[in-house]
Amino acid sequence: MRKLNFSEAAEDALAQAMAQDKHIIYFGEDVVANRRNLLVRFGKDRVRNTPISESAFLGAAVTAAMSGLRPVVEIMIIDFIAVAMDALLNHAAKIETFSGGKWNVPLVVRAACGGGYGDGGQHEQSLWGWLAHIPGLSVVVPSTPADAGGLILAALEHPNPVIFLEHKLLAENWLDFMGTGGRKTVQFDVPVEGARGPAPRKWQQIPIGQAVERRKGSDLTIISIGVGVHRALEAADSLDEQGISVSVIDLRTISPLDKGAIIESVAKTGRLLVVDEDYESFGLSGELAAITLEAGIPLKYNRVCTMGTIPFSRELEDQALPNVQRIKKAAVSLMEN
Amino acid sequence: MRKLNFSEAAEDALAQAMAQDKHIIYFGEDVVANRRNLLVRFGKDRVRNTPISESAFLGAAVTAAMSGLRPVVEIMIIDFIAVAMDALLNHAAKIETFSGGKWNVPLVVRAACGGGYGDGGQHEQSLWGWLAHIPGLSVVVPSTPADAGGLILAALEHPNPVIFLEHKLLAENWLDFMGTGGRKTVQFDVPVEGARGPAPRKWQQIPIGQAVERRKGSDLTIISIGVGVHRALEAADSLDEQGISVSVIDLRTISPLDKGAIIESVAKTGRLLVVDEDYESFGLSGELAAITLEAGIPLKYNRVCTMGTIPFSRELEDQALPNVQRIKKAAVSLMEN
Amino acid sequence: MQPDLWALYRLMLHSRLFENAVIHLWDEGLISGEMHMGIGEEAIVAGIVSQLIEGDALALDHRGTPPLLMRGVDPVLLLREFLGRPDGLCAGMGGHMHLFSREHLAASSGIVGASGPAAVGFALSGVLQRPGTLAVAFFGEGSMNQGMLLESMNLAVVWNLPVLFVCKDNGWSISTMSPSMTGGNLLDRAHGFGMPGIAVDGNDIESFYAVGEEAVQRARNGEGPTFIRASCSHPEGHMLGLQLQRIARQPLKEMGEIAGPLLRSVTRVKGASLRERVESVKEILSMLGKTIKEEYIPGDDPLKLTRQKLIKDESRLDDLEREVLQEIEIVVEQALEPEELELGRTQ
Amino acid sequence: MQPDLWALYRLMLHSRLFENAVIHLWDEGLISGEMHMGIGEEAIVAGIVSQLIEGDALALDHRGTPPLLMRGVDPVLLLREFLGRPDGLCAGMGGHMHLFSREHLAASSGIVGASGPAAVGFALSGVLQRPGTLAVAFFGEGSMNQGMLLESMNLAVVWNLPVLFVCKDNGWSISTMSPSMTGGNLLDRAHGFGMPGIAVDGNDIESFYAVGEEAVQRARNGEGPTFIRASCSHPEGHMLGLQLQRIARQPLKEMGEIAGPLLRSVTRVKGASLRERVESVKEILSMLGKTIKEEYIPGDDPLKLTRQKLIKDESRLDDLEREVLQEIEIVVEQALEPEELELGRTQ
Ligand SMILES: Cc1ncc(C[n+]2csc(CCOP(=O)(O)OP(=O)(O)O)c2C)c(N)n1
Ligand SMILES: Cc1ncc(C[n+]2csc(CCOP(=O)(O)OP(=O)(O)O)c2C)c(N)n1
Ligand SMILES: [Mg+2]
Ligand SMILES: [Mg+2]
User: Fold this and answer.
1) Total domain count for chain A?
2) What are the distances in angstroms from CA D169 to CA A328, D98, D142, D179?
3) d(Cα D201, Cα D190) in Å, to the nearest integer?
4) What's the CA gap between A322 and A327, in Å, rounded?
5) Is the pLDDT of residue D317 over 80?
6) Could you identify the atom of ligand 2 that is nearest to the CA of residue A80?
7) DSSP C121-173
8) Are B97 and B57 members of one domain?
9) Closest of A130, C32, D238, D25 to residue B179, by C-alpha
10) Do the Cβ atoms of C120 and A62 come within 8 Å?
């Protein structure tokens, strides 16, 4: 199997879909420069620059989707969704219900997310659990090139809005843009397997709502998503040496959650550790606690999340985001109690 | 003690604070008409109409708060916050951290919230758990006139942003505005004790982050907020007759949560039922599960929340919002398993 | 082209009588929540909607009833929607602020300004899929301060899209006089975004139709968006049952409730100077007075104005009016019929 | 009043040399993340900031370094902030896009358009608490399509607030030519919101200063906000290390990386017509060419222009330049000194 970078994989799958379905159009700020390969292949009607007017162009994408197009809208980084939140909260997510199920919104919102490269707290948020709170939105976060391609394909087939988030530590174009800037003098803790990996020649969907077990273990289940999965895997290897056998589940989709996979694993291990780069409170980590409790599983629970506004300083940032150290500590304490 | 309506109480406490602190200013859409009593008493410099420009005036409130004023900004109903979310997510909530703790944002955002009067899903959301996900924001939701006054006072003393939400079924001005419209022909399930109740002559703060036990019981803890508290109390009385003894905790503040009160009660009863008018997933109900699990309490857990976009039809709406029936059923099932 | 005044009058009258029925049902408590009428806007709506062709799209605000009716949505479905019935237009899930008709490419929103981006999206898909079609955004003048609407005007210009931005200017946004919160002038704003802007009397269907026609032409010819500012008034006020409206109708009763707290606010110790307080009271009274005068006792009713032009043929007018009235009566009757049992349920 | 060109040149030079040092440290990898320079904007910033008095406020965008320096923020603190140090201006928590100085009433944001509302809020508190003061919003021309900025202009007008809306127009927003995404013209937009708008050469400190002076006067006199559109360019491009910038500097190396996928996109089966594809390639090449020409090899450097006016007194100029250079060297040295041990820690 060929190997691709994360961004290449997403673009490759997207191009495959655009070649098949001419209703797919792509717009956002600077896409002429940043998505130039799509522009060249599919032309300027289908690949468009926008003004810096997120609320207008995301709002427009909603009705474009309702009237026969299948827009992929790029919000440069997910932090900026705040200026356009109304289009998601009050429109994209609700119109299927409002219309009595008669009208749907097949929209893909694509955005870079996440931190770990020192860009400050207004530019490194994850926000996936926050978005997932809104009924009517699906939220997917691939952690490998293969998933990036498979999930964007699924998003493009989905009858309702999907938020597709790419972590900047995985997507080399965004890391180059916002972190490296062509410098040889900076280094980031990029998960190798997440940034480059095998990719099929012809892409197939990875169904939305399907988690995957990345590692089998019997003492403890770590559930994570995005870069967190790679941190968890690294921690798991090291915990193994300490005699703690860890299962790692990559959710891939936050909303809808793959309840079956979650419950099955936690039922086996009896211990759940959530590793979530989104903010700790009122988000994904809590929801996973609720789901397992609702299923009647007695469990021990812990979480390693982003604790507050992300600091600019690389050192403080590394502490604030879920890191291997914190994961190991939390796992050990789960085993002890 | 005198008795006041919910809105009267909030206004009374606000007026008390404005009389004492001339830095408090008040603005929002239509406040000249809707907050006319404050306008008359405190003058047009301090009580101002705005254009329908939520992102501009909420953004302005942030820096006004940073430079010596103490703004109370009215977002008519919390659903509309979506058009101004950036001011909260990327500014109000983050500036204290960004400035290294050197600059704070003493801002109060006041908004009506909640459903139960047939206004449709873009106008009846609660969103408190969603807002609480953002580190740096406090979120308070009073359920009685006394709490409305005491909490707005606390919000006005708080060094950082507080979202103050008033449920439309409690606040008679908003219910008249959006629900009743002077009609004698419509009825809503208004919780009597929430809409009118005792109020002190001189208001004292009710500290932010302090829950209150509204009812003592030994079998089961219901945790709720806003109108949900009253629904829970009603259900509890009825459950009592079935021999189920229910404790009801009114959070009053969503963020920060009163972890002590929550854990203490659940540790006693071993059963937690969350009644939350906000959307079910990735919100308050999950966070409460996480908190109790983190505290190492073995518990049974269930929740009654708003399940999806709120339907317009009164009948369907009543099913979608947490109602006494659903609460009782959930409680009974918690006892059975 | 000369507009067919008879057809337009019929459209307007149908909408007016339908909405009158809605008022009645709302008063009776059969319709819940807020209720914003399009009464007073009929000439604007008819003037545009009558010029639409298949494939054109409508982006509506909180006053979506007239445009949907005139576009051909089944009035029975519409009314049942307002009644919150499962057999309503949106299965009772939307309500009057959230009306959707896929077959008519018509979408509403209760969020001020949202019709701007919505129209842009419709127009984009029109350009790519239905050449020659256009999209209309209806909104009030108060919405002209909402960022997403302003952004959407620019977007329509730079993408050169066939959008009609139709601003129904009644001078009020709820209880605020819009000019007091709006800097500059709306036509200049449109120009500032690179779009022609035209002001027109929205009560005069003939002038309005002509302006609309030109804008429709431009859009269909690929010449881009146009902004139209059309004056109108809302004799039913911002929404049914708003306190202001009640004061307008029963001043003694309703003012009584307001006056007490207001007077106490004048006299309580601590606060602004007495002069300032009296000024504020005056401002509130003037606001009340103005809204009553400007809104609830409006000068020009677009229906009356149109009717005058047709009065010379009185018998035809009579027939038409009787016919429309009957239509609406039947609509109401049908809408109120008991729901049909769903087969699924009984099986 | 005549501006003191010597003082202004000193401000600008100080900022330029400081930023040059920042570039160096960023290249070295000592500063993380994105880095947007104010190089090229110095005349605009100096022309306004030099006219500020105590109590005036600054609302800044992602290019906050020059305004903060010129306003008197300690450059050592600023540089330490960029280095992410706990003894930086914001304790290393903010970084260059999120700079705050409470004592200078200066707040930044990395969100496009946010400086508009921020300036309005500062101005409101100024009017109520510090009469005669004003607030400045700095932003780029690309931001003029962001709703909250447009809204804030209207808000400043209707509240009659002392705000200077200063648009630094370099013609580019990242890699997009702003005029291609901006309808109408920016001065008309300001007028549309009821505000005077003036265009001026932002590289010519004297003309700009005069325009700024008038706007400052209006604001202090309670005559409301003013919009200024000042042209400039960014010889360092949108931000350090942006691919475009790298192409500009090492075309062969960087174009190589781009060319492969681009050519494959021309030839892959399925997609647009060949003509369209070739057109798109041309557009991309033209964009590259333009950005290199317009941005990275700019015509007018405000520092050079000002310097020419002072060159007649060469020895004074020499002294000044040597002095400023020395200052900056000391700043860099101090900023790089090891952090002092916090007493708290050792106890
Ligand atoms: C974003 C947002 N802010 C506030 C409101 C509340 N609101 C509903 S209608 C309205 C006034 C709109 O005025 P205008 O645009 O002139 O329309 P009109 O009602 O006069 O037809 C307001 C403020 C809303 N629905 N959405
Ligand atoms: C809301 C939002 N959208 C997008 C961005 C990404 N972004 C940062 S700077 C910029 C371009 C701004 O252009 P302009 O206002 O002309 O300022 P310049 O960089 O040219 O000084 C963009 C799109 C952002 N920071 N915030
Ligand atoms: Mg209006
Ligand atoms: Mg620019």
Assistant:
1) 2
2) 51, 22, 8, 10
3) 18
4) 7
5) yes
6) 1
7) HHHHHHHHHSTT--EEEEEEGGGGGSHHHHHHHHHHHHTT--EEEEEEE-SEE
8) yes
9) C32
10) no
Does the structure show a pLDDT above 50 at C345? no
* Mean pLDDT of the C153-157 span: 98
Testing the interface with C: which of B117, B313, B314 to mutate, by most C Cβ within 10 A? B313
Probe residue for ligand 2, chosen from D112, D143, D182 as the CB with the greatest number of ligand atoms within 8 Å: D112
Q: Is B123 a catalytic residue?
A: yes
Catalytic residue among B23, B91, B123, B133: B123
Q: Which domains does chain C have, with CATH numbers?
A: 5-235+312-340 (3.40.50.970), 243-296 (no CATH)
Q: Cβ distance B269 to B218 under 8 Å?
A: yes
The whole-number pLDDT of residue D289 equals 85
Q: Is D177 in the pocket of ligand 2 (CB under 6 A)?
A: no
Pocket lined around ligand 1, Cβ cut-off 6 Å: B 29, 52, 54, 76, 80, 83; C 62-63, 110-112, 139-143, 168, 170, 172-174, 178, 238
Does residue B156 contact residue B166 with C-beta atoms inside 8 Å? no
Ligand 1 pocket, mutate which of C112, C245, C291, C295 (most atoms under 8 A from CB) = C112
Mean pLDDT of D260-284: 93
Looking at residue C341, its pLDDT comes to 61
Render pLDDT for C216-238 as a digit per residue (tens, 0 to 9).
999 999 999 999 999 999 999 99
Mean pLDDT of chain B: 98
Q: Which of B136, B169, B199 is the last residue of a domain?
A: B199
pTM: 0.98
State the average pLDDT over residues A245-264.
98
The tokens for C183 are 């800097």
State both tokens at C291: 């809204």
Residue D346 scores a pLDDT above 70: no
Domain that holds residue A298: 212-336
pLDDT > 90 fraction of chain A, expressed in percent and rounded: 99
pLDDT score at C14: 98
Structure tokens at B55: 């992102």
One-letter amino acid for residue C78 of the chain: L
Question: Is ipTM strictly over 0.85?
Answer: yes
- The continuous run of DSSP H or E covering C307 comes out as helix C302-310
Residue C73 has pLDDT above 50, yes or no: yes
